[in-house]
TrEMBL record:
InterPro entries the record matches: Mem_transp_PIN-like (IPR004776)
Coiled coil: none
Gene Ontology, cellular component aspect: membrane
Keywords in alphabetical order: Cell membrane, Membrane, Transmembrane, Transmembrane helix, Transport
UniProt membrane topology term: Multi-pass membrane protein
Protein name: Permease
């Protein structure tokens, strides 16, 4: 068990540290992070998803439907609940509530899951979990967050949610897993040599995303406040713990619960910082949340890995 935990956590610690060092040494700056993220989102990550899904047997993919549905619904549900509590119970403004809801409901599965999850739950389950998280984040969480943040900045500039969703469907990160799933269902198998060629770039996804996150952590001043502590505790502990209880009550298999909890215990996604910087809303809180969540995840993820193994 200890070797599995180390195999999962070591990439997070090492590559984050290298990214942080690169920012400190001024090898990269915050502006260049957007270029790295653009390469990941437009090319590396879609290729990684396509190769992973098309390499999964149809029978295996069908068996993973409960796992995919669990991750998708919990991410969307926790985002909605966290936003509602922040906005209407704790009376935070709309923009702050949006970012807090996204931080709590949006673990960084799409960005660092491919580095951490395969040693724990296997490549096929990891691919399914990552695809489900991508759909939740890109088709639901991000469009709604963009609409709410734009509305907070300028009510007349807020685009409709449906327009945001339709726009998201044009992104390679969305249609690549959809096309790959269709290939598997139809029994179509791309040439192995072609998949290997795609994987050459696709396999850089996790490393580049983690490295860029380390640079972001260095570039933003960290300040630990009560909202930051509440958000991190909710993201790292409360959501995976409640999800565990919910999935067990539903009666899902141990393997499905284990895979889902491994994914849902991953720390806050960098998209929170990206949107905070873009709309100039609570940038320090977003960066501080990302930093504290990433640091504490070494302990919290280790705890959940040990509990569900």
């Amino acid at each position: 068990m200890l070797s599995n935990i180390l195999a999962a956590m070591l990439p997070l610690v090492v590559v984050f540290s290298l990214g942080y060092r690169a920012g400190w040494h001024k090898d990269f700056n915050a502006e260049q992070v957007s270029t790295l993220n653009r390469m990941v989102m437009l090319y590396a990550f879609p290729l990684n998803l396509f190769v992973g899904i098309t390499s999964t047997p149809r029978a295996t993919l069908a068996e993973q439907v409960p796992l995919a549905a669990s991750v998708f619904l919990i991410m969307c549900g926790s985002f909605a609940v966290a936003y509602g509590l922040s906005r209407y119970v704790f009376r935070r403004d709309g923009a702050a509530s949006t970012l807090q809801g996204l931080a709590i409901g949006g673990p960084s599965v799409p960005f660092i899951g491919s580095a951490m999850l395969p040693p724990l739950i296997g490549h096929s389950s990891a691919t399914v979990v990552i695809s489900a998280a991508v759909f939740a984040m890109v088709l639901v969480q991000t469009p709604i967050s963009l609409m709410l943040l734009a509305k907070n900045a300028d009510a007349s500039a807020a685009p409709p949610v449906m327009k945001q969703i339709l726009s998201s469907l044009e992104e390679p990160i969305v249609w690549a897993p959809i096309v790959a799933t269709a290939f598997v269902i139809l029994g179509l198998h791309p040439p192995h040599a072609l998949l290997n060629a795609m994987g050459l770039l696709g396999n850089t996804t996790a490393g580049v995303a983690l490295f860029a996150s380390g640079i972001v952590l260095f570039s933003q001043r960290v300040s630990i406040t009560l909202p930051v502590i509440v958000t991190v505790a909710s993201r790292n502990i409360v959501v995976p713990a409640l999800s565990w209880l919910l999935l067990a009550a539903i009666g899902l298999s141990h393997e499905t619960i284990r895979a889902a909890i491994m994914a849902l215990s991953i720390p806050v996604g960098t998209v929170v910082v990206i949107l905070g910087v873009r709309f100039r809303v609570d940038e320090r809180e977003a960066a501080s949340t990302l930093f504290l969540s990433a640091v504490l995840s070494v302990l919290t993820m280790t705890f959940f890995i040990a509990c569900v193994s």
